[in-house]
Amino acid sequence: MSDPIEMKLAELGLKLPGSSPSRANFLPFKRSGNLLFLAGQICEWEGVPQAFGPVEPGYDLAAAKKAAEMCALNLLFNIREAAGSLSKVASILRLGGFVSAREAFAEGPRIVDGASELFIALYGDAGRHARTAVCVSSLPANALVEVDAIVELA
User: Fold this and answer.
1) What's the rounded Cα separation, in Å, for the pair 149 and 57?
2) Burial class (CB in 10 A: 0-12, 13-18, 19+), 21
3) What is the DSSP letter of 95?
4) CA nearest 89: which of 126, 39, 54, 117?
5) Is the peptide bond preceding residue 21 cis, with omega within 30 degrees of 0?
6) What is the reported pLDDT for 22?
7) What is the pLDDT of residues 97-128, one digit of tens each?
8) Coiled coil: which residue ranges (predicted)?
9) Which residues pair with 44 in a beta bridge?
10) How far is 35 from 29, CA to CA, in rounded Å?
11) Residue 142 carries which DSSP code?
């Protein structure tokens, strides 16, 4: 493995999934110039959902953040597919995070931090991004979290 970002990922004890299949009729990413628009990825591993919503009272924040991190790993898989290397990322511009939750749940942004923290750990200041994090009544496959992204490529 010669990609420095994938080496950082391994140092964090993480790896990319072997696949990230689409659940419907859409592209996993679309490139326009040096911008890469990534479709939302749920907390699944190689097409198998791993964490389910909605968030319940007394939930485990660490586990919920790991679910958001899994979304980020799926996004990274698609970045590598689009760019050929994770090191071709110039900047993570924006993340959109969605958390399946009941009405009046206010901690969705803390859960989406799991994805944000991974991008910052991998890319430093280039991983810092604008972000929206909202709670919704349901997500595909009854997933707990979904995250999408806009990335600038070098």
Assistant:
1) 28
2) exposed
3) E
4) 126
5) no
6) 86
7) 999 999 999 999 999 999 999 999 999 999 99
8) none
9) 49
10) 10
11) G
Q: For residue 100, what are its two tokens?
A: 């399946």
pLDDT, residue 23, reads 84
Contact in structure between 119 and 94 (CB atoms under 8 Å): no
Two tokens, residue 151: 């990335």
State both tokens at 94.
Answer: 């924006």
What token pair was written down for 133? 């994090």
Residue by residue, what is the 3-state secondary structure of 107-126? CHHHHHHHHHHHHHHHHHHH
Q: Which two tokens stand for residue 31?
A: 């490139």
- The residue assigned the tokens 């749940």 is 105
Assign a CATH topology to domain 4-14+29-153.
60s Ribosomal Protein L30; Chain: A; (3.30.1330)
Q: Which residues pair with 29 in a beta bridge?
A: 38
The first and second tokens of residue 40, run together, are 């939302």
Length of the chain: 154
134 touches 99 (CB < 8 A): yes
What is the model's pTM?
0.97
